[in-house]
Specification:
The protein has 131 residues and is mainly α. The chain has helices at 6-11, 13-24, 32-46, 50-64, 70-87, 93-103, 107-129.
């Protein structure tokens, strides 16, 4: 996905989603839509396309209704929304979800989320400093 610009991804999203849904009807591809949306969200954060982040999170919430990954996807949505709040000045919003992953025994994943959070927040601070 990194080779495409954000406008192209957002513009072709509905076509990509339809194709992914077709594949997701095959048992071995059931998680692909959720994985695809999580990747879209992270890429949008990295490119500082916050409106796209919100859009993809809304799509992930809808998709998670019928997903075998519902609990994970919902926690990730809360993490992403918390990260958005942190970018707007609210402290420690994403950290609450990271703590939940730790509580559930997903230490490695929690560490990855902390790393992503730090990278996104650092990147946002750098872009603000250049304005």
């Amino acid at each position: 996905m990194y080779i495409f610009n954000s406008d192209y991804i957002r513009g072709t999203f509905s076509v990509l989603l339809k194709r992914t849904k077709l594949l997701s009807s095959i048992a071995s591809y059931q998680n692909d839509i959720s994985i695809f949306l999580n990747n879209c969200i992270v890429l949008s954060f990295e490119r500082q396309k916050l409106l796209d982040v919100r859009y993809y999170v809304e799509q992930l919430i809808k998709i998670s209704e019928s997903s075998p990954r519902k609990a994970y996807d919902r926690l990730m949505c809360e993490y992403y929304l918390g990260l958005l709040q942190e970018l707007h000045g609210k402290k420690d919003s994403a950290k609450l979800v990271i703590a939940q992953f730790k509580l559930l025994g997903f230490e490695e994943h929690a560490t990855e989320l902390e790393t992503l959070e730090n990278r996104i927040l650092r990147s946002a601070k750098k872009s603000v400093n250049f304005i």
